[in-house]
Specification:
The mean pLDDT is 80. It is elongated, with a radius of gyration of 34 Å. It is 70% helix and 0% strand. With 79 residues, it is mostly helical. The termini are far apart. This is DUF2986 domain-containing protein.
Amino acid sequence: MNRKKKINDILKKKQKKKNAKLHRSNKPRYISKAERAKMEAEAAQQSAENTEEGTVEVTEPTAEASAIAEPTQVDASEK
């Protein structure tokens, strides 16, 4: 009886391992505190670069941009 029980236990363990591999957890991957801090620093640096680039474009208007920004007004009497 013990021999049968051992064999069945071994087979059950193998089957459980196969099922566990098939059904992976939906839990997100763990990210350590140091990695999270590093990612935040990179994101802050990128956002700072983006804001610097954005202010450069805004502070240097071209003649075409000023012409587009200031449309001429048409009076109702001219129509």
